[in-house]
Amino acid sequence: MTEENGRRWNHNIHYHPRILRAIPDGAQHALDVGCGEGMLAREIRRSVPRVTGIDLHAPSIDQAREHPDDVGYVLGDFLTHPFEPASFDVIASVATLHHMDAVTGLTRMRDLLRPGGVLAVVGLARSTMPADLPRDLAAVAVSTFHRATKGKWEHPSPMVWPPPATYRQMRALAAEVLPGSRYRRHLLLRYSIVWRKPQN
């Protein structure tokens, strides 16, 4: 964890290590979808020689470009930007998928990934009441502790709430669009999907 990351905390940053651990050995080019002001992209750059971050939010991209790094920041729409198919060894996305149609977003990420590459997503979904109430109450308690001890960093990017899909729907979508992917629901109101694209 970098000094920058260590000074900041929120639910998304808490799960950055899950993304970083998924980076495959030898990865040469990474894409951060919905990079915001670039914190995760800069973390990925410590392991991957070439990193591209893309976001629709101009103020966030302006902040990202103020950092002295060699990450390539793109102001644009990930769904329509003319990236070459199968051109990334790792694609990361944190708290972005619920800003778009999830099937379209996951399919686009899958198509931009090279064979053998890894897709790592941390996302937001909607709870199903009352079944999820005990888990959500536990999340509130743990979040309160973290905020009391670490504070909470407010990112500059726009927010979408509530997320359009439930956790169960996201699990089903991951299995459909990314067969063999690993889906996990996390305590702090997030889920993750990790998928390695088959070589053939």
Automatic annotation (TrEMBL):
Sequence ranges assigned to domain Methyltransferase type in this UniProt record: 31-120
Source taxon at top rank: Bacteria
GO BP field: methylation
Keywords, comma-separated and alphabetical: Methyltransferase, S-adenosyl-L-methionine, Transferase
Membrane-spanning intervals of the chain: none
Family matches, as InterPro entries: Methyltransf_11, SAM-dependent_MTases_sf
Keyword hit for S-adenosyl-L-methionine: yes
GO molecular function, one term: S-adenosylmethionine-dependent methyltransferase activity
Protein name according to UniProt: Methyltransferase type 11 domain-containing protein
Organism of this sequence: Planotetraspora kaengkrachanensis
